[in-house]
UniProtKB/TrEMBL annotation, chain A:
One of its GO terms (molecular function) is electron transfer activity. NCBIfam families: PRK05419.1-5. Its main location: membrane. The lineage of its organism: Bacteria, Pseudomonadati, Pseudomonadota, Alphaproteobacteria, Rhodobacterales. Signal peptide: none annotated. The gene is msrQ. This is Protein-methionine-sulfoxide reductase heme-binding subunit MsrQ. Keywords: Cell membrane, Electron transport, Flavoprotein, FMN, Heme, Iron, Membrane, Metal-binding, Transmembrane, Transmembrane helix, Transport. Part of the MsrPQ system that repairs oxidized periplasmic proteins containing methionine sulfoxide residues (Met-O), using respiratory chain electrons. Thus protects these proteins from oxidative-stress damage caused by reactive species of oxygen and chlorine generated by the host defense mechanisms. MsrPQ is essential for the maintenance of envelope integrity under bleach stress, rescuing a wide series of structurally unrelated periplasmic proteins from methionine oxidation. The keyword Acyltransferase does not apply. GO terms for cellular component: plasma membrane.
UniProtKB/TrEMBL annotation, chain B:
GO terms for molecular function: metal ion binding; molybdopterin cofactor binding; oxidoreductase activity, acting on a sulfur group of donors, quinone or similar compound as acceptor. One of its GO terms (biological process) is protein repair. Belongs to the MsrP family. It is an enzyme of class 1 (oxidoreductase). It comes from Yoonia maritima. HAMAP family: MsrP. This is Protein-methionine-sulfoxide reductase catalytic subunit MsrP. Heterodimer of a catalytic subunit (MsrP) and a heme-binding subunit (MsrQ). The gene is msrP. It catalyses: L-methionyl-[protein] + a quinone + H2O = L-methionyl-(S)-S-oxide-[protein] + a quinol; L-methionyl-[protein] + a quinone + H2O = L-methionyl-(R)-S-oxide-[protein] + a quinol.
Amino acid sequence: MHIVDTVNQSLRRVPTWTIYIVGAAWVVWMFYLAATDQMGPEPINALEREYGELGLKLIVLGLMVTPLRTWTGVNLLKFRRAIGVTAFFVVLAHFLVWAVLDVQSFGRMWTEVVKRPYVTVGMIAFVLMVPLALTSNNRSIRKLGANWRKLHKLTYPVAVLAVLHYIWLVKGFQIEPIVYALIVGGLLALRVKLRQRRAVKPGGLAVGE
Amino acid sequence: MAYRWTNDLTRADITPKSAYLNRRQILAGTVGLGAIGIAGSASAQDALEPNTLEEIRTYNNYYEFGVGKNDPAQNAHQLDTSNWTVKIDGLVDNPGDYALADLLSGLSVEDRLYRFRCVEAWSMVIPWNGIELADILNKVGVQSSAKYVAFETVVQPDNMIGVRNRVLDFPYVEGLRLDEAMHPLTIMATGIYDEPLANQNGAPMRLVVPWKYGFKSIKSIVRITLTDEEPPISWNKANRREYGFYSNVNPTVDHPRWSQATERRVGGGLFASRQDTLMFNGYPEVASLYEGMDLSEFF
């Protein structure tokens, strides 16, 4: 427990806005690399992929906050909103690169969304993230009350769709998307388990938001 | 039997090494544009400017060396191309294991500036050096019962990370109908820009079929088999619905993953616009091979 305490103490000293600053700086830095020929000879797909992968990583990280605290004691709760909102902005960047730089027209965007299942699920995941980002503030939490919690359960379908988007996108048998699928599947299973435990022991584990 | 195909691009059209090494300066206007010398090219060949050697060598699909576009450039140095032999078998008069030099000796190497279109909707223009496949096939003697040609890529598990990861069912195999294989546009490439093929480009010898999607142009070939039935091809085995045996570049037949109506030239930077994909990748002379065939059925 000693290490966990030290980790939590140092985490307490890190302000949450660090996440936004680092996230934004990273997005801008990647764009700079792509725009200055430092991301290979085909920077559009490379940038699209960088943003997409970080978006997925942040979604997964957001889902890990509660189980991480429950099972290891490491407390990232105060960063969860920042992680979620940053995930949304990175996925927005991913979407914009796709729309503006990659497919380059509304007509083609529509065709892609309708015709290609991996684009369809990616787009659904992105759309589901919009209300989550819009309600990630204290006022919305107060206003929505218990509904806020229900609404933010959308994080799970978002994560599942994002992984599906990745699995469908790659050709052949590739390891990376399968690793993400295993992690998200594992987190979902943990969440179910946690809920069962809570049902047996009411008040035993307070999981704050 | 060389030069059956009248190439309207000549050696003069190929960017000299001094120029392609500095293509960005040329584009910036600091070096005379005359060095590129694309004047006098025919309609579909207009403004065909080859990609730089660096682009051609750093943006590759060669799944034996990893699935990232830069992975082959990082990993393909492990490929062992020494003492390369090509097994030729099936319906041929002179089957056997040929040392590469013996197989190609006496055949003329030509320059072919071809468009290269990947099924993933990116494209390049590549100045190949190669031998017409027909010359090689005639040398080994194709029997009259042969209808197809099957090709196989080398498998060196110790040197190929993608083989160990089982990305596909290796060895990678491909095939052509005999008339496609004998078409003068079809070549066995041994070089690019007058330099031997880099490993990631399919050293020491790879197929180039410019009117088909790039995955048909199988790399690092160790076996050529003449057969009377359509041979299996790797991507079709992996996904029957998405990849057909013919896989001709065809903007009107969509792939489930990528629209084939447009493409993006590699090397255009972050703000490159898409361009229309041409039927048969701009090689209409092959259309007669498919007369009477429904190309949406035989995709």
